[in-house]
Amino acid sequence: MSEEHLHAPTGAYALNALPDDEREAFGRHLRDCPACAQEVRELTATAARLGSAVAAPPPDGMKSQVMERIRGVRQLPPHAPPGAGGLVTVRRGRLPHLLLAACVAAVGLGGVAAWQFQEGRQAERRAEQAQREGEELARVLAAADARTVSGTAKGGARATVVVSRDEDRAVFLASGLPELPAGKTYQLWFDDGGRMRPAGLVGEDGAVVMEGGVRRATGMGVTVEPAGGSPQPTSTPLVLMPLPA
User: What is each CA distance from 172 to 18, 60, 161, 180, 210, in whole angstroms?
Assistant: First the structure.
């Protein structure tokens, strides 16, 4: 087995995508290779984060507000069936007030229901996006041709890129990136033979499937840019790394 191939299965190992015999052999390799062991830990943690569904918790006090509105609405009297005579009576002037209270409560609870529906749809969209990103990340990490390159950025942050030429995708992972001031973001770039191409923004967890294909790219970089990103780099790269062939 070549030295390059010996270190290659970190992504597949992190996703339990290796056959039993290869997984056992690579597990023995990890005991003697701190660099691969560190990459497996980072890839496993990142896959877990991206694969988790995103949930939106209810706002504070929502339950107490709903219960309070319910207590403020009196029940309507039972409906008298035809021919019931005077078994059920309602005092004059009382029914309009009850109807008004019921309408007010219905409007209030309807607003809560509409808000819950909107929040639920947004949560569903976030969960679907997280699932797509997790599936795409898994395909890259488990690709048979996946190759990894790592480097250290200015300030000591660690950056890792996993590249699959067959999938035409790359995954960027980072740990220890300093928090940026308001209005700034970390942006990724592909180096297409000297021309820098935008490749997306780094998420809060330091992991992202880079935007665009990698087949023409020979390297990648990370810069600090205004919020939302830039069409071209406007600052000195924090890290520049060649991509595996």
Answer: 22, 36, 5, 18, 7
Residues 6+ apart with CB under 8 A from 244: 147, 148, 149, 163
Q: What is the pLDDT of residues 44-53, one digit of tens each?
A: 776 665 555 4
Cα–Cα distance, 236 to 221 (Å, whole number)? 10
Q: What is the C-alpha separation between 165 and 172, in angstroms, rounded? A: 15
pLDDT, greater one: 16 or 172: 172
Please report which residue ranges of the chain form alpha helices under DSSP H. Answer: 3-6, 10-14, 20-32, 34-51, 62-71, 94-142
Are 153 and 177 contacting, i.e. CB atoms less than 8 angstroms apart? Answer: yes
The pLDDT score that the predictor gives to residue 94 is: 47
Rg (C-alpha) for the chain, rounded Å, is 29
Helix axes 20-32, 34-51, angle to 10 degrees: 120
As a residue count, the chain comes to: 245
pLDDT tens profile 107-122: 555 555 555 556 666 6
SS3 label, residue 197: strand
Predicted confidence band of residue 55 (pLDDT cuts 50, 70, 90)? very low
Angle at 200 between CA 11 and CA 119, to 5 degrees: 90
Q: Which residue type sits at 20?
A: D
